[in-house]
Design brief:
The chain contains 10 helices and 10 strands. Strands 1, 2, 3, 4, 5, 6, 7, 8, 9 and 10 form a 10-stranded mixed beta sheet that branches. The chain has 320 residues and is of the alpha/beta class.
Length: 320
């Protein structure tokens, strides 16, 4: 039996003693609603529905410090808990890479897998002279100040880093000269671009679908392994010669102190969810694209992503 500790900040939605009526507990590091809460509730429900676990999975909302409170609780208080999973996303690894969790590092937990993602995109106005990703990169190489990006994250956030990853693959290293304007969400970023205040927008697929259907924008690239179902006419960055996969993935991590057997068990359960019709429908209903990396394959992806984001963040002065 496990007791969920209350904090003076009241940041944890405590639900008392962890009941044996549940197979496990999933911590959503935020208040109800939003991506982490969705991950816990959908994945937990489907695990039970498809009999990957024999009892329901309890969801605990633990908001605080952009996921940092949940992370420190797992590392410091529940490091050996075999019946605990925690919702994570690209925001988790970005914050770890940028030391936003008070010195915590990505190797203090084990990343189990991701089974869906909101694909990253690079977008221009429909009437832009930039027809593809090569045009964009060439324009920046010729005159770095000629292209300004708008994005829904702050300077140094994941939206900012996406075009920088592309430019680095293209051999452009003077990334501090690349203009980026952080605004309040993807819709505002697109409005800046359509209005001609910026030359490109960097964001996620879910933010641009309405503008794409209305004909206001052109998507130069989607930052996924393969083209996104339903948007097959949009090329990937990879097929245009820029090996970048940058998605807002939805997944899980577990405590570092559990055995390889426990890690593999959770990886297997997550893989079963990914393969289920129930999850495929949940992705359609919530605008997610297929993105399945589970077990050691995902841990390697996370390690590489954290290292790249850390270096980029240093290069642009977000961290020392």
């Amino acid at each position: 039996m496990k007791l969920i500790k209350k904090t003076a900040l009241g940041a944890i939605l405590s639900i008392g003693m962890f009941s044996t009526a549940y197979a496990a507990e999933c911590i959503a590091p935020a208040n109800p609603g939003g991506g982490w809460d969705f991950t816990c509730r959908q994945i937990g429900k489907i695990m039970y529905d498809i009999k990957a676990v024999d009892k329901p999975i309890q969801v605990t909302n633990m908001a605080g410090a952009g996921g940092g409170l949940a992370y420190s609780t797992v590392v410091n208080e529940r490091n050996n808990d075999e019946d605990l999973i925690i919702a994570a996303s690209s925001a988790t690894t970005t914050r770890l890479a940028q030391n936003a969790y008070g010195g915590a590092t990505a190797d203090q937990v084990r990343f189990v897998g991701a089974i869906g993602a909101d694909p990253g995109v690079i977008v221009v106005a429909a009437d832009s002279e930039l027809q593809n990703l090569t045009d964009l990169v060439d324009a920046i190489k010729a005159n770095p100040g000629s292209v300004a990006f708008a994005g829904g994250s702050a300077v140094g956030g994941f939206d900012h880093l996406k075009p920088l990853m592309i430019l680095q693959r293209a051999g452009f290293t003077d990334i501090t000269k690349v203009k980026y304007i952080g605004v309040d969400g993807g819709a505002d970023a697109i409005t800046q671009t359509i209005g001609g205040f910026t030359q490109a927008m960097t964001g996620d697929m879910s933010e641009i679908v309405g503008f794409l259907k209305s004909g206001d924008i052109r998507v130069l690239a989607v930052l996924t392994e393969d083209r996104v179902p339903g948007f097959e006419d949009i090329p990937t960055a990879k097929e245009q010669g820029f090996d970048v996969v940058a998605v807002n993935w939805r997944g899980l991590y577990i405590p570092k102190g559990v055995s390889d057997e426990v890690f593999n068990t959770w990886a297997d359960r997550l893989a079963k969810v990914a393969a289920s019709d129930e999850w495929k429908q949940a992705m359609v209903d919530n605008g997610l694209a297929p993105f399945t990396k589970v077990g050691g394959d995902f841990q390697s992806y996370v390690d590489g992503l954290v290292a790249e984001v850390r270096q980029l963040s240093k290069d642009i002065g977000v961290i020392q």
